[in-house]
Amino acid sequence: MQRCLQLAQKAFGNTYTNPMVGSVVVYKDKIIGEGYHKKCGEAHAEVNAINSVKNKDLLKHSTIYVNLEPCAHQGRTPACSRLIIQKEIPNVVIGCVDTFAKVAGKGIEMMRASGINVKVGILEKEAKEINKRFFTFHEKKRPYIILKWARTIDGFIDFERTENTPIQPNWITDDFARMLVHKWRTKEASIMVATNTAEKDNPKLNVRDWFGEQPTRIVIDRTLRLNKYLHLFDGSQKTLVFTEKKQKNLNNVEYIQIAFNQNFYKALFKVLYDKEIQSVFIEGGAKFLQNLIDNNYWDEAREFIGNVKFLKGVEAPKIKTQENTQENILGNKLYLYKNNN
To answer: Is residue 77 a contact partner of residue 105, using CB atoms and an 8 Å limit?
Structure first.
């Protein structure tokens, strides 16, 4: 099962909207085949693992391991549970049940009804962890939400700006931390900022310091005050703009009209759910991040602390949770928080 998890994570960021799945086929305590789901629309892990077995006669005497319950429905690819039944594999070991409505125990039920010995719950915690985005999306009907910010050692997320302050980012951390952030971006379906961050920092919100998929950019612009010459509107990647005003789509930018009221966050994440965006990486600003924390719209938070002082400026968000870990990134501290509510 550990090998299944290793294989599954090789496709991190490439399987949306599908989960990450790895599979191995074992005969007499030896792995004789393995595979993983590489990309949405392509063969599933079980198919690749079974196809990799050279002597197919051994399948009738083998055990297939998979970190997620084999599917039971015909989608872009055939049902994996039916394939396992057809190949007469007598034993199946599963990490965790797939809570997606079209599966949700149906694959297990189908295989057991065919006389297959099915064991469920091996490394279950780890199996759920690697597909936390997938499970959150289907169970909570919203994307998996990751908050990220950097603050100074005296507690500020931005320095005090005036009308004459250049439109540019303020760097609190170093190039190594920035590279890590770009790596994180490749693993998420989308990246979001609010109006002030877009206006003051003019971010590109793309992946430059790492190799991987470009996330969908999302910006909150209630009154459409943002200058159309900002990087966010350069058309280089898909961009969603949430606003209360009507605006025609243009240059790879989609404008989404939404009510800015007490139900704003619920409506915002409902739109992203409907667009099958499974995760969102939110990088600011301070008020927006704090509102999300206060309204409990977050699953993880990542806080860098750089070795600089601003003395005054915009205070960083404050988060209260005992579920955290700390790492050192070449002189920067990184706090990782999890929301278990």
So the answer is: no
State the pLDDT at residue 294: 95
Q: What burial class does residue 186 get, using C-beta atoms within 10 Å of its C-beta: 0-12 exposed, 13-18 middle, 19+ buried?
A: middle
Annotated active-site residue in 46, 69, 188, 303: 46
Contacts 24+ apart (CB under 8 A), 109-112: 109/72, 110/72, 110/81, 110/82, 110/85, 111/70, 111/81, 111/84, 111/85
Residue 158: alpha-carbon gap to chain centroid: 26
- Least Cα distance to 103 among 131, 62, 64 occurs for 131
| φ and ψ of 233, to 5 deg | -110, 20
Q: Cα(286)–Cα(299) distance, rounded to whole angstroms?
A: 17
Beta carbons within 10 angstroms of residue 322's beta carbon: 7
| The pLDDT of residue 161 is above 80 | no
pTM over 0.85, yes/no: yes
Alpha helices in the chain (DSSP H): 2-8, 45-51, 80-86, 106-113, 124-130, 132-140, 175-186, 195-201, 264-274, 286-294
The tens digit of pLDDT for each residue in 169-196 reads 777 888 888 899 999 999 999 999 999 9
pLDDT band at 322 (very low <50, low <70, confident <90, very high): low
What's the burial of 179, exposed, middle or buried (CB within 10 Å: 0-12/13-18/19+)? middle
Q: Which amino acid is at 336?
A: L
As to burial, measured by CB atoms within 10 angstroms (0-12 exposed, 13-18 middle, 19+ buried), residue 60 is: exposed
Residues 12-50 have pLDDT tens digits of 888 888 899 999 999 999 999 999 999 988 999 999 999
Are 164 and 299 a contacting pair, CB within 8 Å?
no
Q: Under a CB-based contact definition with an 8 Å cutoff, are residues 258 and 245 in contact?
A: no
Catalytic, 276? Answer no
Kindly report the average pLDDT of the chain as a whole number: 92
